[in-house]
Every structure is written in C-alpha cells, then in structure tokens.
Amino acid sequence: MIPITTLNGKKVALFGLGGSGFATARALVAGGADVTAWDDNPDSVAKAAAEGIAVADLRTIDWNGLSVFVLSPGVPLTHPKPHWTVDLAHAAGVEIIGDVELFVRERRAFAPDCPFIAITGTNGKSTTTALIAHILQSSGRDTQLGGNIGTAVLTLDPPKAGRFYVVECSSYQIDLAPTLNPSAGILLNLTPDHLDRHGTMQHYADIKERLVAGSDVAVVGVDDSYSSLIADRIERAGIKVMRISRRHPLANGLYAEGSRIIQASNAAAAEIADLDGIQTLRGGHNAQNAAAAIAACLAVGVSAEEIRAGLKSFPGLKHRMQPVGKRGRVVFVNDSKATNADAAAPALSSYENIYWIAGGLPKEGGITSLAPLFPRISKAYLIGEAAPAFAATLGDQVPYEISGTLERAVAHAAADADRDEHESAAVMLSPACASFDQYKNFEVRGDAFVSHVAAIDGVTMLIGSAAGGK
User: Which helix H or strand E contains 382, and what residues bound it?
Assistant: First the structure.
C-alpha cells in the first residue's frame, strides 16, 4: 500500500467504494487523513465501516474545510451530467481528484526521480503496460505494475529511489489527475470511445493529451490524425517527443517494417528489435505496442540488449492473444478478452488457418465487420446466445457448426485442426461477444478455455494450468 501522507491531518471526502475506491480510502486513512467516504451501494458502505473507515452520506456533511474531494474514476465527472457529489464539490470550491493524482503527489513529495511510465490510448494499453513491466522486471529492476490494468495504483509499494512504476491510465483517471507528470508518457492511438462520458471526440482527445503534455518524454503514436496533431502541439510547447508508427517510416522515432522495429534519428535508421517468432507479439497492432514499449524503456535508461531479451521472453497478456498450448502444428490461443468484433479483429488478422470459437452474449453489429477476415477461418465453432445470428452472418462463406458449449467447441476444433494439412493451424477462442450468458466474466471464460485445452491428449501447455496437460 502507498499511505497518502501528503494529506496527513487534512479533511478529505471520498465517493466510490469499489475496488480502486476502497483501496484509496484505506491508503488515505493509513496516511493520516481525516476521511469521510460514501457510495450508492449500501454493501460497499458497510464494508468500509467494518474496516474502520468513517462513512456518511456526503449530502449531509460540511464541505467547508475539505482539502480535496476524491472521486472514483467510474463516476461521471462531466458527462452525461456530473454526479451529484461533483456539483457539491464545485459549489464549495473543493478540488476534485482521483487515485492516480494522489499517487503522483506522493511520488513528487518523496521520490520525484523514481522512474514512472504512464500509458494511455484507445487500444493496446494493457498489452503495452504489461510488456513494459515485463522488460523492466526481466532486467532485474524493482518494478511496480498497476492502474487501469487491474491493480489499484495505491495498493503498490511506496515510491522510493530506484523503484520503477508502470501505470496504465484510462481517460477517466487522467481527467482526475491534473498534475500527472510521468518520466515517460505514452499515447498509443485515438479512436472514438467513451464519448458518453466525454461528450465529443475532441474532448476525449484533449483529456488523453494531458498525460503526454506533462511528461518528461512523450511517446506518441502518429498513425491517426488526433494523435499526430497532439505530438506536433506538445513538441512546440517544449516537450521531448518520440514518435512511433506501425504504418509509415519516420525520420525521427520508431516504426515497424514488417516484424522489425526500426529506430530512426535524423533520417539515419537501424533495426533495434525483431519480433519475428515472438508468438505473443504477432500482428501490426503489437508492432505498435512493442515500439511504444521500446521507446519508453529507452527513455528511462534500459539498454537495447535488455529490451530485446524482455521482448523475446514476454509471456503475453492473459486472455489477450495468449498462446496457451501446443500440439504438433496446432497452437491454442486464448483471446477471451475480445468481447466485440473490433476487439476480435487483431487476433484473426494475426493468424491463418484458424479454427475459430466465437459466440456468447452478442454485441450490437455482430460479426459483420469481420467479413474481410473470413478467408483466414477454416471453420467456426459457435457457442452461446449469439450462435444462430453468427451462423446467419457466416452463411456459406465459412464452414461452421453450432457447438453450444465451450467444452464441445474446443474438443471439435482440436480434432479438426489436427487433421489440417497446412503447415500450421490455430484453435482460437476470440468470441466477439460478452461472456455473461454462460460465464461470470471474460476471465472465467478464458480460464475455462485453458482448462479444456489442458485436458486434450498430447497438448503441451505453454502456461501453468491446474488441469495439467496429458
């Protein structure tokens, strides 16, 4: 835990007692703050009270004298309309911040020079975050990984000299972190997302820009117009910018040329890494993720040799294009995190001869947008509520069966792939659907896939599995 000692003795109100909010309340109390917390969920309030955290409906407290109001990132700050607590804070002139801001203030007070890499973007954040942390850890550095990737930032170890922080930041978290100042800040890309919470694409982009605008070194993907303009703008403001691209050569920066990552400086270019053969970094999207990770690691003093070693040993992000088992020429890929068609596209575009397990609770639009990738699919195995609709979309373009359950789909796909005469084949769970018709969440669905794969005769597991391979 990171006790928030910078607010020792100060009065603080907090709203939102979910995972990160509860961790924030505990960190504030541990640092000596006088905290009053609340949540709309009575169970969350009861849990906090049981931990000794003072709770009260924030409508009933005196907002005068509060040092700050800490808001959980999932609670609306501006759109579609501000939460009622936000209105109360504004009326009292109380600053509104979030857990990432508390972290950066604590770092600034006690270890301002400890390396801090922050990552944002519409797509690829989690893979890039995990890859950077792996490179740092595999090189022997004291590394703390957290933020939007699933570990609340204030549950990490406290800042100290030589400790590296790798923090994934959502737009919601950035919006609540006005003095965010990473050693290296990454903006991967920008496409329309969360506009219900930000109102317009421009406002969404403006929020993302804050992360790199406050960085010592800004790593910016320049393959979309919003990000490219941001790179130009912050460079003019005096920020050191390292541009990255998966599509175009750059005179200065890092770019992908096939599987090779090229580093260019004043038009002189040289290969810094080659992703060929690294199963966990297949595809053009991962070339961008790798380029960003390389740029950020170079910025905080990691050598090219250490970076290349880390890339080669990267185990992948769990449930995201994760090779989990192998039998002969067939690889089994867990892409359970692909809960809509857009999310499934990277995995489908990274393999050929795919035995595709898809379906679950359908999202709007189905899989129509994936039609250009259908030629890569040898056969589809459809599960869950979406199976009939997906079958209608596939029609006579792709052979399919309605398997119904994941267990049956894995068994049938493995048997069919084993008979494939091509040089290689992939049995891939990339559902393009939510999991809630059959599983609690995509993690449980992915773990079930791994267990079913481990139960197949002759499979060598590439990751740990309680089931074990036969």
Answer: strand 377-383
